Amino acid sequence: MSKQNKKTGPIRQARFYRKKKEAPTPPLPCLYVDYTTTATGGGAREGEDSNNPFAEQEDAYIDFTIRGVHRSVPEGLFFFHKEEVLPEVATAKKVWIVVVRYTTGNTFGRTHGAWHIFSIRNDPRRAEGEKRMIEFDDKLDNMTEQWNYGRLSPLTKKLIAKKKRLIEGHTPWRGYFERLERVEVLEYEVIQ
Description:
192 residues, alpha+beta, 36% strand, 8 strands, six-stranded mixed β-sheet, two-stranded antiparallel ribbon, 16% helix
């Protein structure tokens, strides 16, 4: 016999169903980017005390070179960047790497040529599209309502008004001292 609720009728017992455990998603495959970097410049400016941690610094310049892209970590490889990619990219013979180059620094000096691998793609059109998206997003970031507002497209005006960005999340080329220098799309054969 079920109990009665004066307003709604019979009281029904709540049944709690356990959700079926879903199998964990397998990790994405990875490609390993073998690279070298060298830096020139930096150090205290002429006339500054080099032992003073607050001395004005010369600008530093980073040279970044990709030596190859591998499906697995080769023996003896010390400097590499591990990048998760889609399965179709992991099996591709050729890939296109979108590399963002930017300036960073602090109150006392700057470093030019800092790098960030944004993505690895198996389609050059997709990589070029991401390059344009990053460049356009940087322009949006630098625009104000007064600057050339009349000649902007309606979509751009909406994005500026809503303070929307095309790329969400952390991007190392955005910050108080950071500025986008350029975006490169580099083509490489994948080494087994």
